[in-house]
Amino acid sequence: MLKVTTEPLERCQVLMTVEVDDAQADQLLKAAAKRIATQVQIPGFRPGKAPYSLIVRRFGEEAIREEAMEDLGGKVFREALKQANLEPFAPASMEEVSWQPLVMKVRVPLAPVIELGDYRSLRLEDAPLEVTEEEIDQELADIQEEYASWETVDRPARIGDRVEISLRAESDGETFSREKVTISIGDPDKEPKYAAILKTLIGMAPGEERTTVMPFAIFSEETDAESGEEGAEPESAGRDANVWIKVHAIQEKHVHPLDDDFAQMMGDFNTLEELREKVRTSLIRIKKEEFEEQQVAQTIERITSEMAHVEWPPVLEESAIDRWMSGLEQRLKQQGMPLQTYLRAQQKSLEQLREELRPRVQQQLRRSLVLQEIARREGLSVEPDEVLRYIETLAATAGDRQQDVVQSALSRAGLRQVFHDLLDAKVRIRLLQILKGEAQEITEEQSTEVEELAEPSGEMPAASSEKPVDAEVNVVLASSEGK
Amino acid sequence: MAELSPYEVIKRPLNTEKSTLAAEMNQYIFEVDPRANKVQVREAVEQVFKVDVTKVRVINMPPRFGRWGRKRVKRSPAWKKAIVTLAPGQKIEIFEGV
Residues near A161 by Cβ (< 8 Å), separated by ≥ 6? Predict the structure, then answer.
């Protein structure tokens, strides 16, 4: 029989002391010796047939004890857990083992404790959802701009025009050339980087060619930006280039005047007044959605940082940091930089980096635990069907990268991410309902015990970018608005 | 009969599955000098291990041959095995721990 005593430790952990009586300890050692015997060849004995005393003599007691640890950590540990009625949240760690008598102390991490506080009593703040005439005017002006027509003109180029040009720049044997590209001429004062080109273009007539000298950096940076290498100091800095420019055509922008005609062009509107009304309502809707979204985000923030009391075992935190680190390592690898080099460049030790990450990871962990708990209390869950459907829509919008997208989504990490995203979106919708006072009271049966939930989101990739989550939420919020 | 000291008579204890089984029946198995007889084995075991021997059986183990080309070569020499039965209740410790 086992004698099990438990002693609560800080941060959701329990120190479990298990005493094993001699007979059982003996059994454990014998079994361990037998396992060793099957693995080695001892002359005179078939594998597994050598007596205990011989194994002790050959390999020493230590070896047998070590082998016996496997059982201790497995069978005995499980039995002890059952007796103590504990459910470990993550693999436990052996703190101490002493033989004769056999006593082991195990640190068992328990599930995180999350007290949410009375989040259901939170309500939307009143917000003045007003749209000023100026905002409508601005919006209309934007629409005007968007639907402006371009007309080819025969005069020198001016600011605001669109020109079609060919361009060739040469410097030290390096060339940069573009054929018949269209660029719009902005104000050179506002775009200092391209001022040299813009100033040259202004005043050129259709068909005109010019050769001039300007810094080559203008072009090389453009190529850099295209290849996605940021931050690298262009080695072409400071060099001048001989540039040849030819203007093929100049187009002038024609903005349609704001009148009933314009309104009719926009669709089902008879008068400008109707269009204005439409713009007003859609602006209000957008503002309302933004406001609600912001409120939900604030509410989550508030529950997380003010209302909720969250505790979790250190293992959870460490493994989250581990995941973050391996994510970082992978990203660095893609850039062709080993982690060691990165650390040296940052002049940090691995431990320092981990410590730096800790507050961030803690915050993320807190947030995800809170969201999880809300999901659990509200009885929200994500069905496999939904995950598949989500992946299908992802695939449908992925275009020619379809296969990659599906593959990465179906990986373990990908599925977890999708699962997490979907749940997150659901929680946000529910929170919005709560804030609006539209959510139904929860009864006990409704709040599901979603067991597998704890694991995946507990292991939620710490490096999960916020972007996809937000994007998804937007979509969902928008569609829920429509109903 | 060759004059052999007890330590010359007993060469080594045999520690095999079979000898482990025999030990449970109070029988211990040794490799002994091929020249030794049962009496010498009895005396040697009694003297070395300070026990009473009730019975000794000896077996001459044949040499093992191998082939090297067309030649027959000896792979392991002939040796003598002795199974020694002790008086009830006695035992030889070395089988418990060599």
Answer: A153, A184, A185, A250, A251, A252, A253
- The complex scores an ipTM of 0.74
What is the DSSP annotation of A410-434?
Answer: HSHHHHHHHHHHHHHHHHHHHHHHH
Which residue ranges of chain A lie beneath pLDDT 50?
Answer: 223-234, 445-483
Is omega for the bond preceding A101 within 30 degrees of 0, making it cis?
A: yes
Q: Chain A partners of B20 at a C-beta cutoff of 8 Å?
A: 45, 51
> pTM of this prediction?
0.48
For A172, which DSSP code?
Answer: T
Torsion of CA A333, A336, A337, A339, to 10 degrees: 20
pLDDT in tens, A161-212: 778 888 777 777 777 777 777 777 777 777 766 777 777 777 777 878 878 7
Structural domains of chain A in order of their starting residue, each with its CATH number: 2-110 (3.30.70.1050), 117-148+258-307 (no CATH), 149-254 (3.10.50.40), 314-481 (1.10.3120)
| Residues in chain A within 8 Å Cβ distance of B12 | none
| Residue among B17, B97, B98 minimizing CB distance to A45 | B17
Shortest Cα distance, chain B CAs vs residue A415, angstroms: 55
From A416, A391, A388, select the one nearest A404 (Cα to Cα).
A391
Nearest-angstrom CA–CA distance, B45 and B31: 12
At position A232, the amino acid (one-letter code) is A
Q: What pLDDT sits at residue A271?
A: 76
Q: How many residues does chain A have?
A: 483
pLDDT in tens, B34-74: 998 999 999 999 988 888 999 999 999 998 888 888 888 87
Grade residue B83 by pLDDT with cuts at 50, 70 and 90. Answer: very high
Which residue, among A422, A462, A447, has the nearest Cα to A116 in the 3D structure? A447
Chain B residue closest in CA terms to A44: B16
- CA pair distance A2, A20, nearest whole angstrom: 5
Residues of chain A with C-beta less than 8 angstroms from the C-beta of B98 = 57
- Residues B82/B43, Cβ–Cβ less than 8 Å: no
Burial class (CB in 10 A: 0-12, 13-18, 19+), B68: exposed
Looking at the complex, report in whole angstroms how far the Cα of residue B4 sits from the nearest Cα belonging to chain A: 28
